[in-house]
Fold each of these.
Amino acid sequence: MMQRHATTEAATTPILDIEGSRATIRLNRPRHLNRLQPEDLDALLKLFERIEADPAIRVLVLTGTGRAFSAGYDLGSIAGRAGAEQEQTAGSAFEVVADLALACDFRIGIDTSEMFMPAARLGLHYYKSGIARYVSRLGADNAKKLFLTAEKIDAPEMLRIGYLTAMVPPEALDGEVDRLATLLAGNAPIAMRGMKQTINEIARGQLDEAAADRRALDSMRSAEIKEGIRAFTEKRPPKF
C-alpha cells in the first residue's frame, strides 16, 4: 500500500519501522523528491526480504518523505552501472522495486498528486515486466497514453485510470492509510494471500486453475473460516 508522507529528517536510504502487524518503509531523499539511487535499491531488496520472512507482518505501507512519493530511478546511475554483473543486479532489483506505486495493492494519493512516465522523452525503451505491470493494472489504452505521450496527469485522472485507488485531501491522508491498514491487518491472512494470488494471475492471463481450486478447497477446511463464521455468529470481530 502506497502513501506520501512529510517529515524533516536528513536524507538516508529507505527507513523501516515495524509496529505490530504493520511495517512501514519510507523513502527518505526529500531534496531530490525521493529519487532512487543504486544503494536505495539494494536497501529496499533487503527490507522486502526481511518483511517477507516475518509471518507476523500482515500489511506493508510504502511512503515517501516530503512533497513527493518518488521521482523514480536516477537515470545517471543507470549509465554508471556498466558491466554484465552490475546490469544483472540492477535488473533483479528493478523486478522487485521498480514501479513502486503500481506494485502496491492499494495506492492512496492526495488530491494535488501528479505523475508522468518520461521514457519516450528520454529515448528509453522501458523494461518489459514494467510495461506488463502498467498494462495489467491500467489497461492497454491507458498504458499507451502514459508511455507514448509522456504527458503529466493530475490526481483525478490518476484515480480515473486506476493509478490511484483512493484520493483524499492532504489532511486526511494519514487517517485513510491507518483505516485501510487496520482493515487489511484484521482480515484472514491465508485467505487474503490466496485470493490476491488468484487475482494477480487472472490479471496477467496466467491463472493456475488447479492451484486456485486447491486454495479455495483448503480454505473451506481451515481454522480461519471456522473462526470467521464463529465471530460472525457471535457478532464480534474475528481473531485471525
Amino acid sequence: MEFLDGRVFWDQRLPGLAQAERRAMFDSMNAVIAALHSVDHIAVGLDGFGRPGNYMARQVARWSRQYQASETEPQPAMDNLIEWLPRHLPPEGEPHIVHGDYRMDNLVFHKTEPKVIGVLDWELSTIGDPLADFAYHVMSWRVTPELFRGLAGIDFVDLGIPREEEYVATYCQRTGRGPIANWDFYIVYSLFRLAAILQGIAKRAIDGTAASDEAVELGRLARPIGEEAWTLARSLAP
C-alpha cells in the first residue's frame, strides 16, 4: 500500500466547498466506479477472484443469514424482505470487479483538486454484478443525511450535486449501458444489505464487542433502513 496525501470526506454535502468543486468531485467519483466496472477482470488475471454465477442469489442468501444471526428483536420488514428478494431476482448480467463498499468516505481526493486519487477498503471486493455495486453506492441518494450520511432531501441545484437520475445516466454512458432495468430492485437489495450490516453492529454492541457510542447509534439505524427498503419493495409492480 502507498501513502496518499489527500482528503477524505464523511459528509457528502461537502460543506465549505464551492458549487463547481462539488460537481467535479461527484463526477470524478462516478468516473472511477465506471472505470472499475469496465476492467476486463480475466485479461488482468482476476478470473479466479470470485465465484462465477448466481451472484445476486448468493448475496441475498448471505446477508439474510447475517441478519438472522444478529437479530436482536423482531423486525417484520426484514423478514418480509428475506422472502421477497429471492422471488424478484433480476436476470444475471455480465460479471465484473465489484468493490463492495464504494462510497465517498472510502475515497481519497486530491489535496487541492476535485478528483479521486485512491479507493480504500477492498475487503468486500470480488467478481459479481456491477449494478449491485453501483446501486449500493447510489443508495445514499435515497437516505437522508441524518439517517445514514445520505443525500435525500438536499437542495441539489444549490449545492451543485447531481440528482440520482443524472448520476445514474452518466454512469450508464461511461459504461456503455442503456437504461437499467430493475434499478429499484437493486436499491431495495442495497438498503436491505445495509440494514443487515447495521444489525450486525447492533448485535456486537449488545454483546459488548463493539462498545462505542457510535456502534450503538449505528445499530439503531437497522430498523428504519430495513423499513425503507420494504416500503420501496411494496411499491414496485409485481
Amino acid sequence: MDLFLKDRIAIVGGASQGIGYGIARTLGGEGARLAIMARRVTDLERAAEEIRRETGAQVLAVAADCRRAEDCSRAIEEVTRAYGGIDILVNNDGAPPLGEIASFDDAAWQRAVEQNLMYVVRMARGALPCMKARGGGSILNITAISAIQPIAGFGLSVATWSGVIGFAKTLSIEAASHGLTVNTICPGYIGTRRLEKVFAAGGKDPDVMRNELRAEVPLGRIGTVDDIAGLAALLVSPRGSYITGAAIQVDGGLLRAVR
C-alpha cells in the first residue's frame, strides 16, 4: 500500500539505533527525505549511511543533544535550510535512569523533564510555523507503555511521558485547523538496548527475565522495532490523516485496562 510519503520531509529523533532508526528506515523506504538526529556523531553517520544504502533515501545527519534548547533550535534550522521545510516530526529519544521514584533528587528530575518533555515541546514549537506554512503536517511522539500503565522503577519516565501525552492531546486540538495531526505511540516490550537495561536492572539472569517479560505478553513475544515503525509510518502519512490526539499502545496486548 502506497503511504504517499514520497518527498515528504521528515525529522526523526534518536535515529542512530533502535526504534528511531527503524522509523527512519521505514520512512526512507517510502520515499521520504530524511533528517535524523542523535547525540553520538559516529553512530549517527553510520546509521545515515546504512539507511541510504538500504533505501536510496536522501538522509541528512544532524548531530544534536535533544536535552539542550539550543540544539533543538539548531536542528530545526539545519533541516529547513537543507530541505526548505518540514512535513513530519518524530520525537524519539532514550529514557531517564531507572530506580525508585523517591531516590531521585531535583537534578535528576530536571534532566528527565529536559530529555522527555521539553525536547518534545521545543521541537514541536520549532516545527509548527513551517508545517502551518506548508498547509499541514504530522507530529508523532514515541513514549512507552509505562506512561499509561505505570511500572515500579520507571517513575522518571512515567511522569514526564505522561506529560508528553497531555501536551500532544492539547496540541492536536489547537493545531487541527491548520491540517496538523499529533499522535503518540506507547511501545510495550520492544527488543532494543533500552530493554537490555531493564534486564540488567532486574538483577536476574537476562534470559530468565526475558522469558518472564515474554510470559506477560498475551501474544507471547517481545516486540520488534518494525512493529513500531509500521504504525509510525501510517500515522504520519496521508493514509492516517484522520487520526489525531491518539495515544496508541503497541504492546502485544500487555495493557490490561479498558479505555
Amino acid sequence: MFVEHRLKNPRVSESAYIAPTAVLCGDVTVGPHSRVLFGAVITAEGGPVEIGSNCVIMENAVVRGVPGQETRLGDDVLVGPHAHLTGCVIEGSSRIATGAMVFNGARIETGAEVEFNAVVYVNTVVPAGAAVPMGWFAGGQPAELVAPGDWDRIRAVMGPLDYPGTVFGVGASDAGSMMPDVARRYARALALHNRDHILPDERHMLAYDHPQ
C-alpha cells in the first residue's frame, strides 16, 4: 500500500519490489533493486526516509522517519524481520538482524552488524565493521557493548545519551511528569493521518529513475 502523507508520496525505483501488504507512507524513497517484504512499514512521520539500492527490508520490519533526525539506509543493507529503526542512519553493507532496535540519532557505520534482539540506544555510533552481539545493549560514541544482564552499567551508559530530550524534546527530570503532554503532542501530530490518501496506481504514479 502506498499512502500520501503530509502531501508527500513515496517514490520507488522501477526495479524495486514492494510486497502487496507492505506500507510506504509519505516522503519515502526506495532505490534500485531494493525489496520491501510482506507486512513491512516504512513511514515518514515528519521526516523523510531514504532507502538505498539493493536493500532488503524483511517481513514486519518498521523504518520510521522523524523530525530533526536523518533516517537513511545506504546501499546493500539487510533489515531482518520485526526489526525497528527510528530516526537513524544505517550505512552501506550493514545488517540489522531479526528483532533488533536502532533508536533516534544512532548511526551504524559501514559493514557493522546488529545481531538478533540487540538494542542500539539513542545518539550511539556503532563503528565500521563492529558487531553488537545477540541481545546486547550498545550505547555511546563509539558504542560501548554491555551484556543484557548488566543493568547497572546499562543505566550508567544510558544517562548521558539523553533519551527524553532526543525522542520527546524534554529534560530527563521532566520526562515522567510531562508524559501526558508528550502523548497529546504525539496524538496531534499523528492526527495528520486523517488527511492521508491511499494511492490507487502505485507503479504509474510513483516510479522514478534513481541516480546511479
